[in-house]
Amino acid sequence: MREDKLGGGKLKGACLIAFFAAMLMLMLVIPVAMAIPGKLWLEPVQPSTYVGDSGDAWLSESYVTTKTQFDLQITYHNGQKDICHLYLLVAVDRNPAGNVSVNVDGSTVGPYNGVITNNNNALIIETNPDYEYPRHGIYKYGSSTHFAVVEIEIPGDGILEKGENITVPIVIDPIASAVKVHFDAVGADCTTKKAIAFVPPSHDVTHQVPEFSTIAIPIVSILGLLFFFNRRKRRE
């Protein structure tokens, strides 16, 4: 009986050790962003369409705009510390070369040399320590996605406090008709440049060029009306 109890105790001990080891491993693989309490919200100042559930991760739970020029509003929605370093992630669903040109706050974005980790996070080396922007279907290891990190100048005293927002002019020159451009952001504190705020997937922004069919229908309608009135005029 005593041997059975000892054996049972050893088994329980081994199970506890295995449990704590598993929990430790789980904590290590959880994206860094899970520990960040601060939230940034992105939204185009011009009218945009908020897309809820979608089969396209670039559009799902995102403010989608087809405007090639718009002001992007960045709001420090929730956080405990002030932000002195603000970084905008500009992601394109293909190699930008020959497909699209993006201008942020008066400067052309590039190079698109951001690194996507093998666990599908965007590596932000501008913060200290490096920050892995969490996966949400945009940053996929081995995919055709390219992204760049642009530091945004905070106007005034250079500090973005909770509840404040700034607007950044965006100009997109699409060369490929189906290109998508996605925007995320990271905020870092004033002392160590530690990442303290990010944009949750439900408050990011995507620019999408309208599909040819949505552009062609109104054009065909206009051409049809012109043809109709021209023909009618000739008859008269």
Summary?
The chain has 236 residues and is an alpha+beta fold. Helix content is 22%, strand content 35%. The protein has 2 domains: 1-30; 38-210, Immunoglobulin-like (Sandwich), CATH 2.60.40.
Quickly name the level 1 CATH class of the largest domain. Answer: Mainly Beta
Uncertain stretches: 19-34, 212-229
Q: Could you tell me the number of beta strands?
A: 15
Element string (H = helix, E = strand): HEEEEEEEEEEEEEEEH
Shape, principal axes of CA atoms = globular
Number of structurally distinct domains = 2
Give the helix proportion (percent range): 10-25%
CATH third-level topology of the largest domain: Immunoglobulin-like
Structural class: alpha+beta
Verbal overview:
- With 236 residues, this protein is α+β, with helices and mostly antiparallel strands.
- It folds into two domains: 1-30; 38-210, Sandwich (Immunoglobulin-like).
- Helix content is 22%, strand content 35%.
- The protein contains two helices and 15 strands.
- The chain has helices at 2-29, 212-235; strands at 38-44, 49-51, 62-65, 69-78, 85-92, 100-104, 107-108, 115-116, 122-124, 131-133, 146-152, 165-174, 180-188, 195-198, 204-208.
- The strands form two sheets. Strands 1, 2, 3, 4, 5, 6, 7, 11, 12, 13, 14 and 15 form a twelve-stranded mixed beta sheet that branches. A three-stranded antiparallel beta sheet has the order 8-9-10, with no helix packed on it.
- Strand 6 (100-104) and strand 7 form a beta hairpin.
- The chain starts with a helix and ends with a helix.
